[in-house]
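Standup, Tuesday
Yesterday: got the pipeline producing structure tokens again.
Today: sanity-check two examples.
Blockers: none.

Example 1:
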Amino acid sequence: MTSPLIVVTGAAGQLGQTISRLWSESPLPQYQFKALDRSELDLSQLESAIAVLAELKPSVIVNAAAYTQVDKAESDSIAAHLVNAEAVGRIAAWSAENDARLIHVSTDFVFDGTSKTPYEPDQQTNPLGTYGASKLAGEQQIQAMAKQHSAIIRTSWLYSEYGNNFVKAMLRLMREKEQLSVVNDQIGSPTSTHGLAVLIFAMILNRNAAGIYHWTDGGSISWFEFALEIQRQAVQEGLLSKAIPISPIPASEYLAPARRPAYSVLDRSRALADFDCPSADWKAQLNLVIKELGSK
């Protein structure tokens, strides 16, 4: 008898690469595993993407692919909605029709940042820009077409040793610059792809998992505070030869096409209650990635 197949989209992205790397250590030996990059499954090509799923017949789809260029989305809204909403709807419909489970990764950008306490999964959404609106539209498609077959994970400030992200950008700038200025009035929670991957493995194991979950590495910090900790750990681990001055600035001085939520801390208590996954704090998760970068 053939083992059921798990398909991961976005194999070349941060999360896709992390899932692929950690798969051999996951508690899912009963499943086959296939990670597909954009050349193999392109969400902007709807018919061919569905044809790939029809050929592979996965039991579980982990959708880690997305249009993630937050600023570019403001002038490229058609492409953002095609990938983040229309394609997600088509995948959700296929999942429901073929009795497959869908685990979909979404974002804190579905919120407007006016809350003063961590956002719970059922709180009112109100995205500020095109990226958040496109991701929310994808969530709504899933809820309409495959609610019983799906789980949505909202996450924030995602980083890893792979691809482009805030941690790697800060390390590069800290090597190149004599000083840095970093935004201090946007508050959120960092998320390592390592912890998120472990949650996804736990969700696959729990076949009853459905609905919307939030996942981060905890913490309620500014980008400025995150940069300070990145530098501290990088100096300690030998990735940086010295520390440089880092100054806090308001977001109004960081000119960008897309508005960001001023506060987007996510309440992860439902995920912690429902799944057996570690709740390591953000500094410990950052240290894991810093050490990975140091070993390369």
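Example 2:
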Amino acid sequence: MNVTFQDVSVRYADKTVFTHFTHTFSFSGVTALMGASGVGKTTFLRVLCGLEKPESGSVTGFPARFTYLFQEDRLLPWLDALQNVAVVCDEASARRALEEVGLGEELHTKPAELSGGMRRRVALARAFAHDSDFLLLDEPFQGLDDSLRAALLPLLQKEALRRPVLFVTHDRREAQSLDASVLELHGSPAVL
């Protein structure tokens, strides 16, 4: 899938993130977006999928049906884990997704009763269960210990068989273990 950033500029008050950024990306499989904190990785994702409009320029080629996992879990506190995932799919698919992330025993537990790592896995299950043409994950494994990360990486690889996956990470080992293509942003304004 080819997506083009054409002359994209983004600025927040006194910080310029992108200036006349132009590049065509060919997304397939897993792509890791890397760079120092504050360089513009989240802004890149948000502009890519249209959640944020650039000051100038455009993005073309990105599909209308996408899934976005934010850095925050964004779970609905009044719903249990199963219901939180089922907002994007049928109940059987939600149950399967939760079982895949190791939460089959927590289906009817509300977010406030789950640990931070469990909430993150509910959010991941919801992202995996959502049927779309592109999967964007902003630091999907934050707050998870190494053993949980290792258990979840194959699920991300499985997702990449059905749609392109672009995920933000600071961990080169994650990118390497997924055999991911790497996009690295650096500088201010950011460049590849």
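Quick observation on example 2: The two ends are 19 Å apart (CA to CA). The chain has six helices and eight strands.
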